[in-house]
Every structure is written in C-alpha cells, then in structure tokens.
Amino acid sequence: MIKKIALAAVTLALVGVAADAQTTTPRKGGTLRMTAPYGTSLSSLDIHTTPRAQDGIVAKLIHRSLYKWDTAANKPVVELATSVTVSNGGLTHTYKLRDDAVFHNGRKMTADDIIFSYTRIMDGSKGYPGARWIRNIKGAVDVEKNQAKEISGLRKIDDGTLEITLNEKIEPGFALMADTTSILAKENIESGNITSNPVGLGPFKFKEHLPGSRLVAERWDKFYKPGQPYLDRVFVLVMGEASARDVAFRNNEIDLSILGPAQYLAYKNDPDLQKGVFEVAEVFTRNMGMNPAHKPFADKRVRQAINHAIDTDLVVKRLSKEKAYRATSWLPLTSPAYDKALKPYAYDPEKAKKLLAEAGYPNGFEFEWMTSQNESWGLPIVEGVLPMLDKVGIKAKVRLVEAAVLTEVIPKGDYQAYLWSNATGPDPLAALKCYHSQTPRTACNYVGFNNTDYDKLVDAAGAADDPAKRLDLMKQANAMLYEEAPVWFFNYNKAVMAYQPWVHGLQPNATELTHQYGEDLWVDEKSPVAK
Amino acid sequence: MLLLTLRRLAQMIPTVAAVVLTIFVLFSVVPGSIASSMFDDGRGMDPQVMERKRKELGLDKPIHQRFVDYVGKLATGDLGRSFKYDVPVTQVLADRMGPSLKLTLAAMAFAIVIGIPLGFFAALKPGSLGDFGTMVAAVSGLSLPKFWLGLMLAYLFALQLKWLPSFGYGDGGLRYLILPAVTLGVSPMALFARTTRAAVLEIMNADFVRTARSKGMGEVRVVSWHVARNVLVLVLTAVGLQFGALLSQAVVVEQVFSWPGLGSLLISSINDRDIPAVQGCILVIVLFFLAINAAVDVAYSLIDPRIRYG
Q1: Mean of the per-residue pLDDT values for chain B?
Q2: Which whole-number Å values give the CA distances from A117 to A51, A76, A92, A366, B108, in the listed order?
Q3: pTM for the whole structure
Q4: How close B234 comes to chain A (CA, Å)?
Q5: Confidence band (pLDDT; 50, 70, 90) for B232?
Q6: Left (φ > 0), alpha (ψ -120 to 50) or beta: where does A137 sit?
Q7: Of A121, A269, A483, A497, which is most buried, counting CB atoms within 10 Å of its CB?
Q8: Would you call A251 and B272 a contact, using CB atoms and an 8 Å cutoff?
Q9: Looking at this predicted complex, what is its ipTM?
Q10: For B230-247, b where at least 16 C-beta lie within 10 A, e where not — what string?
Q11: Which of A 435-464 lie inside 8 A of B, CB atoms?
C-alpha cells in the first residue's frame, strides 16, 4: 500500500515537472506579431542613419552591436565578443571577437567590420546619430573633422581581436550598445542595398518591408546562440494609433501592444487583460526646465517653491492616469544610483508661498511655458498644473510648439520654461554630467546649471575606481540636484506593454520596453500563428 | 476634345509652380528641421550631429539657391531624395500610391454605388419615410468623425462579428480594404445622396420632363433617359471634387487602419520636416486633383453634347 502511494506521489511529481517544463521550455516555431507604435512608418532600414525608438524595434531583430543591454542585470554586457580585457588605466579594451557571428549574407564577422562600421559613423560629411557614441574612441573626432581617414583608437590585432582605446575612463558598453552603432557589412552598404535589403548579425534576417505597414523578418539559422532564435518569423506591424492597437489586441490580431494612459486604466481594470500587462520604469525623466536667464528662476527658492506648489502625485494619478512614477530627483527608479531613501518634494502651497516671499516674489511672477501636444508630458499636463501655480501667485502663459521645435529651441536657451522628457539613463554618470557646468546647453545642460560643488562630486565619481564609492558619489550628486531643483521633477516614465498569454521571453528593458531581443522570444501552441 | 485636354494640362503648370513655391517658402519660415525632428523624443540628441545633418542635406544653403536647385531637378522629373527615408522621393511616393489609389477608388465606388441611387430613391418619393430616413443618414454620414466611425466599424465587424480584420494592408485584398473604404466613403456617399436628391427634384420639375410625360413616356424611361443624364452632369462636379480631396483626406482613416497611404506619409513628412517628401506628396495630390477635374470637364461634354468649350 505504502509502495503504491509512494509510486503515485513520484508519478504526480514527474507529471508536475513535465507540465512545468512544458510552460518554461521555449518552443521552437511560430510567428510573433509585434507592433511599432511610435508613428506611421519606419524611418530607414539603414540603422546608422536613425536614432528613433521605432527603428530600434527592428534593429533588435536584425542587427547587433558590440554590446547589448542585459535587461535582468540592468547593465551593458559584451555581445559580439567572448571576452574583454581592460588595460592602460581603463582606457584600452581588448576584445576577443566571436568567431561564430555570421552576417545574413553568409560571411563571418571580423574586426574589420567593426572598424568599418565605426569609421563610417564618424564620416564628417554625414549626420550619423551614432557619432555621439563613437566620439568616445580616441581619434574618432579627427575622422569627423576630416583630419584623418582612420580612427587611431581602433586597432586590429588579428581578424578575431580588436583593441579599442578610449579618450577617458568610462564604461564603453553604454555607448557601444546603441543601435546606431550596429555592426554592418561593408558590401551591403556599398552595393546600395542597405535601405532595401539590410544585412545584419541579428537572430532574424530581413524578408519584406511594406513602407507604412509592416516589416517581416525570418529566423537566421546561423545565429551564434545555439538553438536560438525560437521563432520562425517576426512581424513588426506599424500601428501608431493606440485605440486601433487596442481593438487589434483584443481581437488577437497582434501579440504585443504598448498601452497609452487611457488603455492602461482599462486593461488594469479588466480581470482577463490585466494578467497580460507588463510594466517597466524606463530611464526617462519628465521635467519642467527653468531657465535661470528668466530672473525668478535664477533663485533656488523659486525653483523649490514650484516643486512644492504642484501636487505632483495628483497630476500623476489623474492626468498621467498612473502610467508614470513620481520623480524624486533626476535619476530614475531603475538607475543603480537611485536613492530609495530620498523623498520627493511634498505638496505644500503654503511653503511655496513662503519661499517665494523670501525670494522677493510675495505676489508671484509670470513666465512663458513652452510645451508640445504630447499627452504624457505636454499640454494636458501644463493645463492641469496652471491652476496650482496660480494658487501661489505664479501666472504661466502657454507657448505650444511641435516636439521637433522643442529640440531646436531648448538647446539655444530660447525659452523661459519648458516641459519635456529627457533620457536619464542607462548610464547614470552620463545623466548626471548633463548638469556639469562644462556641459554646454547644446549637449544636455539645457538649463545652464552651474554649481562648483556639484561639478566636484561628478568629477570625483568619474575618477573613482571603486564601484561602491562611485555609486555613493553619484547618489550625493543626485541628492544635490534634488536640493538645487533646477527643474520641476515630474515623473519617470512607466512603460506598459500588453502581451497575449501565449507570448514568452519578454524582457523588462528599462531603456525602451518595445526593444525586445528577438532571440529570447517565443510563442506556445495556443498562439493563432503558432505554426 | 484634344484641344480641351491640352488646354487643361497647360493650365496645370502655373498651379503646380505656385504650390511648389508656397511649400518652399512655408518650410523656410516654420521652425524645426529634419535634424531636430530626428531627436524629438528626447533620446540621444547631439547638436554636432544635427549640424552635420543640416549640412549633409544642404539645409545650410540660402533658400533661393535651394529653390533654384529644386526647380532645376523638378524640370527633369527628379523630385529629390527623402530626408527621412534616404531614398528617392519617387520611390517613397510609388510605395504609397498603390494603396492610396486602391483606398480612394474603393471609397468612391462605395460612395457612388450607394449614394447616387439613395439620392434618386429619396427624390422620387419626396416627403416619404424613405426620403426622411435617407436624408437623416446623409446628414449623419457627413457629421460622423471618421476616426470614431472607423473604430466603431472595426469594433463591430472585427472584434464582435469576426468577419473582417481590424487593421492593416495584409495581402492588399478585399478583406483588408472593406472597412477603411467604407469609413472613408461614408462622407462622400452622404454628399452624393444629398446632391443627387436636390438635382433630381430640380430636374423633375423641368419643362422638358413635363413634356416627356405629356407625350406618354413611362416614368421609368423619363427618369432613366431624361432625368438621369441631366442629374449626372450636376452630380459629376461633386464626384470630381470629392475624388480629388479623398486622396489627402484619407489620413485619419489610414492612421486608424494602419493603411500605408499617401495621407499618413504627408502628415508624418510634415511633422518630420522632410521637405522633399512633403513637396512630392503635395505635387502628386495637386496633379491628381487637376487631372480629375480635367477629366470631369471632358466627361461633361461627353454626357451632354450641348456643352462645348470654346
């Protein structure tokens, strides 16, 4: 009897294990239907020419850069090399390249391909967005200025070994993981086919592009990760309209859908749909920048007053529909240097009035607030905040412009205040350097912040060899920004993606949730396009 | 007829020239550029890259020089290269023209096949329940926002009934075309119904119709032979105007259904300051509009031999 019970128990356990293995063991085959939600088209299939998030969705399928973003560890890791050795005081990185990375045209990748790609990006007659990352390599600027043909900091040891020397001691992975620094095949570019039939090193090869509608990529059988990718093909469907994506998702016509604020609420409250909602705190800080050239904003007390005057929690709850995290300071939630102990500015209109009076504005003041139409960090937010500012005597006049105009006007300092979304990661040091006095407005010090104590902290963090010390110094710098309040700290973006129950392998990519590394994705047999 | 056609074609030239100049001037004064739009989501902005991009695309040259260069190329049929897509504008337009024409033609077919008979039906029984119902439907069709209508049709026919796909171009077949075409065609259908009704009522009271009836001609023949041809001449103007306008008006429908047409290309090109693509789109739309209206003029003289152009 006991033997029978024991046998039954073992059998049940085995069945349980088998069942568990069935759901966690990736299944090979099937199609994934992703959506490209940021507009009505892809820009270019030449990934070197476009920094847009929309095109990055495709880049993660078809291309690879020297580094990739480890979404679990939240840091860059080398991808196209098996090892990297650091020498020369942290300036020189020697990479043993993968010998199994094969382009989609069948040719193996070598060190020459990396040299070619980076040199191309630094072509001074072109505006390749990746230049801002490659500029970190010694000698890259000389190529950019047409003073050299080759980047001196790139040295080929042999076909499988590449040495990169940097200008300063930084973690190169943050820069060299960017899609705009993808390693491309020279022959694909020189033949002119890069914009119609791109060839890459990624897990999927290009199959079809119907401009304004879709891109199709098929499994690349010679991808360097054995057994991957799992999927046969991926459809990237251009769907810029959130309501249309909602209908299509509910109708099982698409597998992944980025949710806007209105859909987020609906999905959260639906007992079935809420099971397939994926939330990630992305590395973007929404903020109101205050130009110290407009006299009231030159006073820290005024800037702090504004942070106290706005009921930011209410704005996040009611206007952002909780599709955002309340910001405490500049660095976002997912940043390693984010300080959980730091409390955000309290909503306190009385304190705001007191600070304004101390600063010499007992009756408030006026300013012009520049904003775009964006639903998450634009006019709807500004309109919600205006009465709160008015309550403490601050009158704001709204200047509505297109998002592209913000990009042009703000770096020139031609504004009094703006509402914007800025990338504040994944490299926390780079994000904090934006407020270094040596960083020009045109780079990312848009508010012209200038504080010598802050500069010292950031410089020290950059020079620190001990990671713990570096982290502590960055936290101190972040706390100083909180105290100085160069901006109204609004929120950190909460990216929300709905996924069908048959989709597996999604990664919590804080740099951009729609950017999913295709080799890890798979669908189970419940998918309508499982075969 | 040939002279008429050639005259119409010649009349297009000053219109096209005026449009090209207007767009050029407008985009020179409007703030923003392709360089700034590349980074409008706040990611990885780099002023040096922006400046190089401007130089690469010749945006640092004086406007008059850029205009002369553009017109010189245009004269040879070269519409330039898209700033955003980095391919010839002709290729960008060619990719979108097919789906756009398909959608426009399908919408017009729906509007004509439903709208004109509805107008006749309403006018032949004026004051009846059918007349009232038809006109209520017509006013609704003109009033309903396309965005809302498209989503409602997708909700009903795709999500609820599972009859049709809710979005996309798919294989370009009829299944994918139906919902966007109906959404786009409802408004002109309503217009044609009203226009036809008004025209039929007017023609039915004409002397020659009374004469035909008094001669003993049957009502069916009176309507189909005398009334219809005269009504068509009046309705044709509305059809021509709508046909030309639909190509650009389709942008909302294209966005709801992710239809890869010219309308959404135009809007995104304007947002991105892709000047060559904007100019190309506008040129195509203007030429299409002019061509349709020239065709309407020619059709007038075919339908009604009394109409001659001196």
Answers
A1: 86
A2: 16, 20, 19, 50, 49
A3: 0.90
A4: 37
A5: confident
A6: beta
A7: A121
A8: no
A9: 0.89
A10: bbbbebbebbbbbbbbbb
A11: 442-444
